[in-house]
Amino acid sequence: MNVTQICIGRFHHFHLARQLEKHGLLNRIYTGYPHFKLRDEVGIPRDKIRSFPWLHTPYMFRSRIGLGNFAMLNKWWYWAAHDSLDRFVASLLHAPGVLVSLSSTGLHAGTKIQRLGGVYICDRGSSHISYQDELLREEHARWGIPFAGIDKKIIHKEQLEYQQADAITVPSEFVRQSFVRQGISANKLYKVPYGARLERFSRTQHPPENRFRILWVGAVTIRKGFMYLLKAFQRFSHPNKELLVIGNISAEVKSLLNGESLEHVRFMGQVANASLPDIYSSSHVFVLSSIEEGLAMVQGEAMACGCPVIATQHTGAEDLITNGIEGFIVPIRSTEDILARIQQLADEPHLRNQLGENALEKVKSLGGWDQYGGQYIQVIKSLTID
Predict the structure, then answer these.
(1) How far apart are CA 330 and CA 352, in angstroms?
(2) Domain 3-195+368-384: which CATH class?
(3) Span 212-365: which CATH code?
(4) pLDDT, tens digit, 9 for 90 and up, residues 216-265
(5) Where does the pLDDT of residue 386 fall: very low under 50, low under 70, confident under 90, or very high at 90 and above?
(6) What residues have CB less than 8 Å from 323, skipping those under 6 apart?
(7) Are 105 and 82 within 8 A, CB to CB?
(8) 218: left (phi over 0), alpha (psi -120 to 50) or beta
(9) Does the model's pTM come out above 0.90?
(10) Strand 189-191 to 212-217 pairing
(11) Which ranges in the chain are annotated with CATH 3.40.50.2000?
């Protein structure tokens, strides 16, 4: 049994590739990333990483070459990068095996490997694409921000992939339920939660006692629900409060920030990964108020540094934390619930400390990417037993 992977970028697929290689199962991983962006991907032989960068790489750098604001061009470009990678891999498949492909890059290759007698697994990192599109349309409308929607060609292709695949792997219960609500059989769905790079993230210090620091790590976008946290922070009562924001701000959110009070908010942009353990460790709470995502790995990073998490039900948090034990799980779009939990942690330092300790213990028990790899390999074996 050999496993071929397709992933337009990196995401969690290179973690999976390392696990497959460790168990002698990896045939090759195909990606749209150029080789120079993959130099830090250790544990995978170089000859097993095949780059197909001709469309995706220039797409990644489109803003730098002055093409970032052409909506129709970028929509076509995004589609073409995904579909051409899929067709390229399909042209190279000549023997049965297992194909694990990130959604929107596997229809042609997956169908080909099935014709050869193999197995096609569609791996989806976010909620069902139709449900995702619905949520994002609703959210943009709430803020009065125009939204063209997810490309209909991408939606159609992913729906065909869901039907064609022998199995669909998802990272969280939130994502699994989104598929069930869209009519996909639960028997076709396999939940395999992501791991965390425990060797990279650990507690390096403790939060300062003379202030209360709230941390945000990730893109500052409509999808991530940043404005709900900001409005909760504005009402949060503390004599020395701070909201530390790490990540790039989208144009849509920038327009919403006009006229908002940003006192005690520090926008730091991108920071080096090596700095993140210190930042997580020195924060009193990490907040992720996303409207939609599969399983945000930043939650595990924060936990590994002893930082409690407040996250919405649409972040995969329920597969990482127990509400009230390692942090809190709140409904989406609820400024009130975010505010209440932040205030509770500030007013009850002993509770905050206990949640931080619990988070440390919980993330250790999750087993990092080794456990993820083990579970994924079990899924593969269950689909390939004669």
Answers:
(1) 17
(2) alpha beta
(3) 3.40.50.2000
(4) 999 999 999 999 999 999 999 999 999 999 999 999 999 999 989 999 99
(5) low
(6) 329
(7) yes
(8) left
(9) yes
(10) unpaired
(11) 3-195+368-384, 212-365
